[in-house]
Every structure is written in structure tokens, then in C-alpha cells.
Amino acid sequence: MSLVKRLAYVEIEASDLDRWTVFGRDVFGCELAAGSTADSLQFRIDARPWRIQVSRGARDDLKTIGLEVAGRDGLREVCARLEKAGHPFRMATKEQCEARGVYEMCLLVDPSGIEVEVSYGSLLQPQRPFCAAVGHGGFVTGEQGLGHLMLVVDDPLRVQQFYGDVMGFITSDYVSTKNYGGLAGDFIFMRCNPRHHTLAFGSLPIPRRLGHLMLQVSRIDDVGLTLDRVHAHGFRQTRSIGRHVNDNMFSFYCESPSRLQFECGWGGLEMEDDSDVKLFDVTSMWGHKHL
């Protein structure tokens, strides 16, 4: 059983917040949260105050990953494992915790250079039901967290070891393909809850840390409706509708205002703790053509 329980939130640094408002609210159906400002957008998809923060900046890339443990003991165990591994970290201030909407957290940088925050006691606001900006059946979150991330890293095996040994993630499977959009690609998929994977790692010749962020919708029709809104609002679809071979996700991909890939998916596989590790030589059973 994984020490980390789920992906709680992400922060993206972006240069065009006006287009991000359209992309998050009007295309993907996220609620623009009350905490949004002129320099920081917060998108809500469930009872949390927010799940995706987009802060003004020149990076146009992933800035921070927020991971969640069950409670104080879990956070203490993460800190003990970090100390044992000789990996630096520090505890967050009260003000930093309040800004993230958590009770306590530690801050670190993972082996690939990505800022990671590990917390417990996330604020819930069930008195404020999620209200999508467009007709929407909602997102699959809860124990499965925000969704999943595919991260572009220099040394996938080293990153896998860190998230396995320190954070307790479990390897779900590997994909080694000779044709990922015309490139050879090797990918590692790791889980921390029933979602097939919360983190995936690969080494690709792209200048960004975030390969893609996946949000899973509750209704299959919301995949198609989201795709319609991608085109209606002038965003670019980057991969056709298809079904992935490992997590069975029915999905498509599109490009955000920061040129980061977002996947809108439905029907993802849920795993057992003792599921066998598998190897695949393609990423999809059908579809997902690079456009």
C-alpha cells in the first residue's frame, strides 16, 4: 500500500492567463474558484477549494506537484524516508499551508528538478457544491485524486526509484514503443491508489517537464462535448480519440495556452494492490493518432 494516497493539486506557471481562463472554465468545464486573482487562477473540479492553480510567469510549464498522505504519521514517515535517503526537504510555514489549503506539509525538489509538496489535512468545502461553467457530469476524483501526470525526466529509472522507495508508489507497468508520434519512447507508470497511474515518467526531446495532465470525466459524453469546445474556442487537438492499452482510458489530447498537453478521459482502469506488473509495446489499442 502506497504511503502517498493521491495527487492533490498542481501549480502551472503561465504567461497568458486570459486564454487559460477560457481553456479551464469554458473548455474543460472547471469552476473558476473564489480565490482567483489577476495573477493567479484557481480551478475547482470537486469539493476542494481548487485543484489546478495557474500563476502568472514566463515558464509556461509545470511548477509544483502537490501529493497527499493520510495524516500526520504519513507525513512523518515521508520525512524520515527523505532523511534516510539524504534528500533535502523543509517543513512549510503556517502561511504556506494556508495558501495551499492544507493542515501541514513538507517541501522538496524531486530528482528531476520538480517542486513537490507533501501534505495532509486538505480543506474540503462540501457546503459549496462544484458548479461547472458548462453542462458537465463532473470529474472522477475522491480517493483517486486530481488525475494523472506524465512527466518528462532525464533519468526515468532514478525518478521511479525515488517515488517508489520514498513515497511508496507502486509500479503498474511499462511501455516500450518504437513509434510514439514517430519517436521511440520508454515510459514507466506508477500508482498510489486504485487509479491505474497517478504519475508516469518518460524521456522525450521536448523542452517541458509536463508531458500531459489527465482529467477524468464521469460521463463518456463529456469527452465528446469537451472536444467540441476545444475546436469551438480555437484550441488545437493534438491526438485523436482513442483507448490506451494499459489503463483502458478512452480519451483525446489537446494543447493548453502554454502548449502543455491536456488529456480528457473516461473509463480508466482501477487496480488492485497486488496487480501484476505488465509490459506493452504500444501506447494505445486504437486511435490516439498524433495530429
Automatic annotation (TrEMBL):
Query: What protein am I looking at?
Result: VOC family protein
> VOC domain spans which residues?
6-121, 145-267
* Matching InterPro entries: Glyas_Bleomycin-R_OHBP_Dase (IPR029068), Glyas_Fos-R_dOase_dom (IPR004360), VOC_core (IPR037523)
- Give the originating organism: Thauera sinica
Family annotation (SUPFAM superfamilies): Glyoxalase/Bleomycin resistance protein/Dihydroxybiphenyl dioxygenase
